Amino acid sequence: MTTTPVLQAINETTASQQGHPPLGVMYEWLTTVDHKRIGLMYIVYALIFLVIGGIEAMLMRIQLAVPNNHFVSPQVFNQLFTMHGTTMVFFAGMPILFGFGNYLVPLMIGARDMAFPRLNAFSFWVSAFAGLLLYFSYFGGSGLYAAGQAPDVGWFAYAPLTAKVFSPGHSTDYWTLAVFLSGVGSIGTALNIVTTIFCMRCRA
Q1: Where are the domains of the chain?
Q2: pLDDT per residue over 132-141, tens digit each?
Q3: Which UniProt keywords apply (predicted)?
Q4: Angle at CA 140, nearest 5°, toward 38 and 188?
Q5: Under CATH, which architecture does the 33-199 domain have?
Q6: 160: closest CA among 177, 172, 150?
């Protein structure tokens, strides 16, 4: 009994999916340009940083729960304030919106994928690297005692908090680079979504 090309392709696809080792599955996710997978990775990435930002908020609330509390030092509180605000805006709120946009927009307008699939993947990994770079400042941003120091420049990094006198070491540099790279990823994804909507919408 001969099988049609369609059935043969389905059988080969099913067999390849069942026989993939864990490393193969991981490689597929890391190198994917599929808008659904990238959307899911954005959402998972945002939820992870949402948990981290929530823990930082909880630590600040414990410090503010009672007067004259010494749960954390003033320096650590400033670091938590900066990291919480940056995390929630740039690495939780924005990525989860891009995740839903990546997943749903092509489906809603009848497109097979985003207009620029490789730019889509590039934007996600740039954003992911930005989040890791921000938190690497705990290890790489040498502070006053040559130890890791997170940024402590508030939500907006206004002077004079960004000056060397108030923020010794390279913690502010890590913050600046992380926000810049997050902006690169966000602009790439936003342009991709807009181009997809205007140029790949199915005709009514």
Answers
A1: 33-199
A2: 999 988 887 5
A3: Electron transport, Membrane, Respiratory chain, Transmembrane, Transmembrane helix, Transport
A4: 25
A5: Up-down Bundle (1.20)
A6: 172
